[in-house]
Amino acid sequence: LLPLLVICAWLYTTNEHQWRRREGEDLLVAARLASRIITEELHQTQQIADAVARRPEFREAVRGRRRSELAGALRLVADVAPMVDHVAVLDAAGERLAAYPLRTTEEPAERPTGSPALPVRPTVSGVYLRPASSGEKVVSVSVPIHHDGGAFLGVVQVQYRLEDVAQWLEKVRIEPHGF
Q1: Exposed e or buried b per residue across 134-145, where buried means at least 16 C-beta atoms within 10 angstroms of its C-beta
Q2: Distant-in-sequence, close-in-space partners of 66: CB < 8 Å, separation ≥ 6
C-alpha cells in the first residue's frame, strides 16, 4: 500500500509541475502576441498620422491655422483607425489647433506630464493621465509636422485609452491547442 501511495504522490507532483510549466509557457506566448499586436497597431497609427502630416495641404492648413480643415483631416485619421480615442493637432508652441472628437467638457492631455517639448521625430509616449476630472490613462503616438523647408510646424497626436486597449487584448484567447 505504501509503494502505491508514493507512486500516486510522485505522479501527482510530476503532473502538477508539468501543468504549471505549460501554463507559464502559454502566458509567455500570450504576452508576446499581445506585445506584437500593440506594436503593430501603434506603428500603423504612426504611419497614418505621418501620411496626413506630410500632405502639403495639411501643412498649409497648420501654417494658416485653418482649424476646420485640420478637424476634417483628423476625422479621417480617427475613421481609419477605429481604436483611436482622440486625435489633435498642436502648433509648434503646443497650442491645440484642432481635435477630433472635439471635447467641450474636458480637455485631453496635450503632452505627457513632465514632457517639456513637443517631439521632433515620431514618438510613442509612456502611459500618462489626462488632466481634469477623468484621470483616464492614455498612450499617445505623436508625429511632427514639418514645412517643406524643414521648419517645425507642430505635431499630430493620436491618443488611445489604455482601458480600450486592455479590452481589445482580452479578446486574445489561448486554447489548449493554440489561439
Answers
A1: eebebbbbbbbb
A2: 60
Q: Could you list the pLDDT tens digit for every one of the 179 residues in the chain?
A: 778 888 888 888 888 888 888 888 878 887 888 888 888 888 888 899 999 999 999 999 999 999 999 999 998 888 888 788 889 999 988 899 999 986 544 444 444 433 445 667 888 888 888 776 677 888 889 999 998 878 899 999 999 988 888 887 777 665 655 55
Cα 43–32–137 angle (5° rounding)? 60
Give the three cell numbers for residue 3: 509503494
Residue type, 151: A
- Under a CB-based contact definition with an 8 Å cutoff, are residues 159 and 86 in contact? yes
Best CA proximity match to 48, nearest among 159, 162, 158: 158
User: pTM of the full predicted structure?
Assistant: 0.73
